[in-house]
Amino acid sequence: MKMKMHKCNECGIYTLEDSCPKCGGPLHVIYPPKFSIEDKYGKYRRKLKKETMNK
Length: 55
What we know:
Blueprint: E1 6-8, E2 14-15, E3 27-29, H1 42-53
């Protein structure tokens, strides 16, 4: 079992479960990704961020 804290997208509560115990909504991990000098996907993240900022 992974011990990562999750936050519900809908009701905003924090949990260690796989789905929200209150509303059953989707969860996302609240921790940022681990930093790496050799960022394999940095080019794609920056491109996606630029595209979403322009909308």
